[in-house]
Amino acid sequence: MVRPQGRAISGEHRRVALVTGAARGIGAATVLELADRGWSVLAVDIAGEDPALPYAMGSKRELVALAAEASSRVSRVGAVRPFVADVRDPAAMRAAVAEAIDAWGGLDAAIAAAGVIAGGVPLWDMPIEQERAVLDVCLGGVINTARAAIPALLARPEPRSGRFLAVASAAATKGLPQLAAYCAAKAGVAGLIRSLGAELGGTGVTANAVSPGSTDTEILAETARLYSLPDAGRFGGQQPVGRLLEPAEIAAVLAFLASPDSSAMTGATVAVDGGLAL
Ligand SMILES: NC(=O)c1ccc[n+]([C@@H]2O[C@H](COP(=O)([O-])OP(=O)(O)OC[C@H]3O[C@@H](n4cnc5c(N)ncnc54)[C@H](O)[C@@H]3O)[C@@H](O)[C@H]2O)c1
Fold first, then answer.
1. CA dist., res. 202 & res. 39, Å (int)
2. Residue 5 C-alpha to ligand 1 middle, in angstroms?
3. Atom number of ligand 1 nearest to Cα 168
4. What is the pLDDT of residues 187-198, one digit of tens each?
């Protein structure tokens, strides 16, 4: 799709977003999509290893390269800034929001995409530190992002169109064996979003989530490893579309939800899953 480069989408100011899990995968695709649509974006990632987990997180090199690529694609130096933070750290998330406000004068959307996966054994056999990592990143991290970002979304003058968004999962509604902590965390995200939607009523700020199906990223590669599959390809066959999804396909829906055009939606968790949940 060809888009006007660096076009501000609406309103009097260029919209500003904070995206977590931004170094790669769905988060990175979302940063690129928002930059293409004229947003300024703070790209947040742990950008380093998580000692509790046996697979690699996104790296500082990937995060910095993503920010540089996004900025150069829209010919706007500094359109996307990298920011290293662990979503489990509430102070770090407050600092991230402060950085976005310092850089661009406010915040219009926060997109909580950071997530990790672990399992491959029944819950009662799962190492406790892996269970904690999944719950604390996938659910606690979304809560920390909401706590830090929503006051900034509400600080915009009326009429507001602030957007708090989270990436849940098809796992929020399915009972996936050997992924109990991940399913619990993602179901928690859907519940959180319902409550935030109600709490934000009448403010112009909304809260929504997407539930991706199997999408071609490192989390899915790790899921294949947990299930002792040779690769993630066969997850595509479980989806009516008959293939894995691309991160950009999830990002396109997140970018719509981040825009003022999604004003009729709040508290919703939208399946973007190639039909997996059918
Ligand atoms: N890929 C799929 O099939 C799929 C399906 C459903 C939902 N999801 C969800 O999509 C989101 C994005 O995952 P992805 O598929 O792009 O995987 P990914 O592993 O490629 O990306 C996840 C990113 O989150 C970052 N991250 C991990 N822990 C963090 C922390 N504590 N603080 C800050 N950043 C942290 C990682 O460094 C990485 O860059 C996750 O919430 C995941 O649960 C993915």
1. 25
2. 27
3. 7
4. 999 999 999 999
Task: Name the residue ranges covered by the structural domains of the chain.
Answer: 16-272
How open is the CA angle 149-151-153, to the nearest 5 degrees?
Answer: 70
Residues 6+ apart with CB under 8 A from 163: 108, 109, 110, 153, 205, 206, 207, 208, 257, 258, 259, 262
User: Domain 16-272: which CATH class?
Assistant: alpha beta
* Per-residue model confidence (pLDDT) at position 77: 86
Helices (runs of H) and strands (runs of E) counted in the chain: 9, 7
CA distance 178 to 264: 37
At 156, the amino acid letter reads R
Active site residue 55: no
Residue 141 near residue 112 (C-beta atoms within 8 A):
yes
Q: Does ligand 1 come within 6 angstroms of the Cβ of 58?
A: yes
Give the mean pLDDT of 187-212: 98
Task: Provide the pLDDT for residue 12.
Answer: 56
Partners of residue 269 on adjacent β-strands: 209
Q: Are 42 and 19 in contact (CB under 8 A)?
A: yes
Arithmetic mean of pLDDT over the chain: 95
Are 167 and 208 in contact by the 8 Å Cβ rule? The answer is no
Please report the atom of ligand 1 found closest to the CA of residue 222.
19
CA 261 to chain centre: 19
**What residues form DSSP beta bridges with 270?**
210
Q: What is the pLDDT of residue 73?
A: 85
Predicted confidence at residue 137, as pLDDT, reads: 98
How far, in Å, CA of 78 to CA of 237, rounded? 40
* DSSP E strand stretches across the chain: 16-20, 40-45, 80-84, 109-112, 163-167, 206-212, 269-272
Q: What is the mean pLDDT of residues 13-41?
A: 97
Model pLDDT for residues 16-29, shown as the tens digit of each residue: 999 999 999 999 99
